[in-house]
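User: Here's a chain of 311 residues. Predict its fold as tokens.
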Amino acid sequence: MTVIIEQRETINDILDLFTEYLERTFKLINEKKIEQLISDLIEKIKEKKRIIFIAFHNSNPIGFLAGNIEREIVETTGFYIRDGFDLENCGYKLISTFTNKIFEMGFKHFRQTITLPANFESSLENSLKNDGFRVYPRVQMMRDLHKKQSLPIVLPENYSFEPFSMERIDEIFQLMKEANPKEHSDTYIYPEMLEPEKSKEIFSKISNDFTDLDININPQIIFENRLIGLSFIISPSSEIAFIAEISVSPYHQRKGLGKALTNKVIAECTKKGYKKIGLAVTLENTTAYKLYKKLDFKTTTNYLTIVKSNQ
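Assistant: Prediction complete.
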């Protein structure tokens, strides 16, 4: 029999699929934790905050795709295919059926990230591209921080650094838009970047209304009292800093400002006692990727980001 995809309003009869997913994907062994996570998912499905599709083969559940439908952009929250069932375009059928449904519901954008290696058919990427999806290989990179290291932090004449300031908050998100034009790969992945107010809302949420930001590890570049370079650094732990965004005005590029700004961030994070600094970059963004490699960032995770717009 072929793979059948069904949208489900309940998953109570196939809990073993989700238990296996949590155990294998996240290495969870605490039964109470697993039960709580599954219970939370069931509740969110009931509340219409999650949408979920199950793949069946011979009436047996072999995979699923779940997504968050609380926001304008639907982002997947779980994707899993059981061993031995990466067949008959199971991954593609799940993603395609899911996306068609959310577009019918009126949503305009779909986004999914798959950490590699993952269990799906080898033809998945080509099948998605043939169906109008964009598939972007991306990497997470990390760099060790050592207080003895000395980094060149050189700005051209009339350029200067200043710490993050709420007084420039509107400039920051306007610059983020200018530095990421519509045709840029990152803008296809994150269309929110085209609207400064939406970007501001997202970054506000991940930084507790900007109060969690350490102004010293978030340097900006100023030219003639105008913001032309920005950094947005968050701290997921006391030992790790993460570069959520670094951008330089398109009118001031090819002057070494991106390198200087990144080195300044690294230096300030080192002073603060962080042990590592990380970031994520799209491989298609070759300029940024090559720069980070030169600055000793090492790839720690490979993944695919899959997007499709209904516009």
